[in-house]
UniProtKB/TrEMBL annotation:
<dbReference type="InterPro" id="IPR053170">
    <property type="entry name" value="Transcription_regulator"/>
</dbReference>
<keyword id="KW-0812">Transmembrane</keyword>
<keyword id="KW-0472">Membrane</keyword>
<feature type="transmembrane region" description="Helical">
    <location>
        <begin position="89"/>
        <end position="107"/>
    </location>
</feature>
<feature type="transmembrane region" description="Helical">
    <location>
        <begin position="127"/>
        <end position="147"/>
    </location>
</feature>
<dbReference type="InterPro" id="IPR007404">
    <property type="entry name" value="YdjM-like"/>
</dbReference>
<feature type="transmembrane region" description="Helical">
    <location>
        <begin position="58"/>
        <end position="77"/>
    </location>
</feature>
<keyword id="KW-1133">Transmembrane helix</keyword>
<protein>
    <submittedName>
        <fullName>Integral membrane protein</fullName>
    </submittedName>
</protein>
<feature type="transmembrane region" description="Helical">
    <location>
        <begin position="159"/>
        <end position="177"/>
    </location>
</feature>
<dbReference type="Pfam" id="PF04307">
    <property type="entry name" value="YdjM"/>
</dbReference>
Length: 342
């Protein structure tokens, strides 16, 4: 999730644990702890792909965060002894904030290395990386806690319950769409071996569906509010890796994306795209792996670079209409608005 949400979640948890001792300092400490795991973004692993796939690594590991939280708690109690803030209470706060950070990240589409140093990326994809309906109640609880000593902790506790229920709603909505997708794939004779269902920006009502096959992938949209259960899928070629040599970063990207990858040539550049994040041709993670020389041969890059994808918010109004169940705009949305006519 975004940094604002993680900080807000950390502050809200801290306020809930603090109870009557909830104050601005406690909320600030929770916010700082809530953003701590994301400081790994300052690390440079040498190239754009490595920086992407190694994010949410050791700083998000459920094998490392609890002992690290206990160490922080011991250090705090060692140098700032307090009758109320016992080692037990401080430990509950620090462990809760750090662990919920990585668990919330694992509910997005990006992928989180929950058991680092062991291999594996985990994601439930039941919430978008930015969702106002999740974040705004947390911010509201923090505001109440800053101005009300008697109601602050209770608001934090209540909003934590509400936010957890919202995550549960996201998962339930995803399963509802998954059942609909399964029926559509069978009716349209499409493959069902590798299917991704993930929310579109800022909501859990409109869902993006990606269906993989050997040579093509299909992309469609499905809203909880649709009256027609049919999903209009658009097929696109997957492309293939054209070189004999496969760099280690490509294998890493395959693992990171669970092989939801697309290969294409554009302006004499070999571009590899992660199909999970973004929509249509507005994909978030695209990398230039090779360039053609004057003879037309591919020259593998020493270090893959980020491809400057054009992403913006100009299509949000169209997505809003589609979210409300207007399926008549599907063709325009997938083929033109999202850049399918490249």
């Amino acid at each position: 999730m975004d940094s604002v949400t993680q900080a807000a979640l950390g502050a809200t948890i801290a306020g809930a644990v603090a109870g009557k001792q909830c104050n601005a300092k406690v909320l600030l400490a929770g916010a700082v702890l809530g953003t701590l795991p994301d400081l790994d973004v300052v690390l440079d692993y040498g190239d754009a792909v490595s920086n992407t796939i190694k994010h949410r690594g050791f700083t998000h590991s459920l094998l490392l965060l609890p002992p690290f939280a206990l160490l922080l708690s011991w250090l705090y109690c060692r140098f700032r002894p307090d009758a109320f803030w016992s080692f037990k209470r401080v430990s509950v706060l620090t462990v809760s904030v750090l662990v919920t950070h990585t668990l919330l990240d694992a509910m997005t589409t990006y992928g989180t290395q929950l058991i680092w140093p062991f291999e594996g990326y985990f994601e439930l994809r039941n919430i978008f990386i930015i969702d106002p309906l999740y974040t705004l109640p947390l911010l509201m609880a923090i505001i109440v806690a800053l101005f009300s000593k008697t109601m602050g902790a209770r608001w934090c506790q209540s909003v934590l319950l509400l936010s957890t229920l919202y995550l549960g709603w996201g998962f339930a909505a995803q399963q509802y769409i998954a059942n609909r997708v399964e029926h559509n794939l069978a009716a349209q004779n499409l493959p069902n071996k590798q299917v991704m269902i993930t929310p579109t920006p800022f909501n859990t009502v409109l869902w993006r569906v990606v269906v993989m096959d050997d040579d093509y992938y299909w992309e469609g949209l499905a809203s909880i509010l649709d009256k027609d259960t049919n999903i209009d899928f658009l097929a696109r070629p997957l492309g293939a890796w054209p070189l004999e040599e496969k760099p280690a970063t490509l294998e890493g990207l395959k693992a990171f994306s669970h092989n939801y990858l697309n290969y294409r040539e554009e302006n004499d550049s070999l571009i590899v795209s992660d199909l999970r994040l973004g929509m249509g041709n507005n994909l978030s993670f695209e990398f230039v792996y090779a360039e053609r020389d004057e003879a037309g041969n591919w020259i593998l890059a020493d270090a893959p670079q980020r491809f400057p994808s054009q992403r913006g918010f100009e299509h949000l109004s169209t997505l809003w209409e589609r979210m409300k169940g207007d399926q008549s705009i599907d063709a325009n949305l997938t083929k033109q608005t999202l850049g399918y006519n490249r």
